[in-house]
């Protein structure tokens, strides 16, 4: 089982409207509500790939319950930990021209005992996982070294961790020795202070990350590991939706960790799945035809 | 006990933002969530006035549960009837300049057996009420004569009904003999086809309404009854929020029906409470100082 941990679970709501105007009221045509957060997207992709995946993290309030109900309806197992605060809601209003106007509600504030209980429960669940994926932002009240503590708990139990975080959470998390850090170029720069990708990846590896995979949009993925540096890129997908492409990369890397796939194939697979995710309209899904086609053609090369 | 029936219960959500732009994402500063719908506003005002009030109607989905939780937190008793569909959510985004941009989600579709069960339950509850207030729109799936059926059930049991509706629901509802119909001038015209208030009120009374109270914003209230025509108006409240003023009128009229207050006092009280509601920021509340002051000064006069 692959465990995905989403500490800042969300309810993602989309309103489809013809058009709307400031100061006026608009009737919404179609409403969709989905559980959100990076870890949830990773879990959706893994589930669609046929992997046994378990969703955990923090969820609270009616938004948390609605997100959980949607996860179950989508066939995903969860062991989310209930908090008193209300999980954040992200609203996107999409008009007929595809323009997206977003409103992000403030997230919950997690109490110290809630975090301690969550740390214990996540550590228990991690003990029976083959890989633990830790993704996304931290809600208020959760300590900056939350990922470091969770990575340490998994790693001490012999379970490899994949970390996808930002800022201080990433910088501290890397010191706990995650098997893989997945990061984009700007997150890498802000966490390490290094503006050159190679130097940033080296800094994270020196801090404790075993392997660092850097995503750079259509330019593809670069993997920095003991064995050297690898690069893989899929042909650019035009007019797609890049939201969730990074989560597809995490999903492919986690799947490769479970199966012990060698790094060149693992990275090529991640590049193919990422491009297939850009081809799909929603984060957490991918275009299976694009994926099937690209996974036989994309190759990783040593740099 | 005064029973308020809200067949199209809502969850009213307000986002307070500094400003927002099309095509961009805005972090929401403050979020408020309240149960909504005209009958709920009437119940809030009656509760604030110290009356024993019970909220019923149809509520479903997580929006229905959230609305119900808020009602309870506000100290209001409810016997809402659960439906499978999801209660409508109305979102208003208010910027620092007070401009309000609304998004109305589509409401639920009520199944025929749900409506039958609701009719039975509302009729049971009405039997132990002293007055029944029926307010607001009908959700899809509820028959156009829903208010007629509910008014008939209450009236046959000897309980007077106050109806605040629109269009066909009002036209049909009036035929069942409600003690009072409360209506604004444009609703009156659309329900009766009469563009003159006096003619419209006469048409509703001929159809079956015992008394008709017509609201006309700051111009005040006109009451058409067997005893003649009365008018009452409070001094205009400048810069207030007229949303919910009509619900304050219904609340005052229902309270007057319970106590058997003579019509001149009852109408003056309704005009005072309506102006006090305009002075309060939210529908379902009123400014108690304005109310105390106006109820001793506003007078109804025969027209």
In short:
With 303 residues, chain A is α/β, with parallel strands linked by helices. Chain A is built from 10 helices and 16 strands. In chain A, α6 crosses α7 (197-207).
Strand and helix map with partners:
The structure is a homodimer of 303-residue chains.
Chain A: E1 2-6, E2 10-16, E3 25-27, E4 30-36, H1 38-48, E5 53-60, H2 61-73, E6 77-78, E7 81-83, E8 88-94, E9 100-104, H3 112-127, E10 131-135, H4 146-156, E11 161-164, H5 167-174, E12 180-184, H6 185-192, H7 197-207, E13 211-215, E14 221-225, E15 228-232, H8 245-259, H9 263-278, H10 288-295, E16 300-302
Parallel strand pairs in A: 1-5, 1-10, 2-8, 5-6, 5-7, 10-11, 11-12, 12-13
Antiparallel strand pairs in A: 2-4, 8-9, 13-14, 14-15, 15-16
- Average pLDDT confidence of chain A is 95
CATH class of the domain at 1-133 in chain A: Alpha Beta
- The tally of beta strands of chain A, per DSSP, is 16
Q: Supply the CATH architecture of the domain at 1-133 in chain A.
A: 3-Layer(aba) Sandwich
Task: List the quaternary state of the chains.
Answer: homodimer
Largest interface comes to: A-B, 28 and 28 residues
Dominant shape of chain A: globular
Largest sheet of chain A: 11 strands, mixed
Q: Share of helix among residues of chain A?
A: 25-40%
Please indicate the percent range of residues of chain A in DSSP E strands (runs of 2 or more): 25-35%
* Span of the ends, CA to CA of chain A: 33 Å
Enumerate how many helices of chain A there are, as a single number.
Answer: 10
Low-confidence stretches of chain A: none
H and E string of chain A: EEEEHEHEEEEHEHEHEHHEEEHHHE
- Which structural class is indicated by helix and strand composition of chain A? alpha/beta
Radius of gyration of chain A: 19 Å
- The CATH superfamily label of the domain at 1-133 in chain A reads Ribokinase
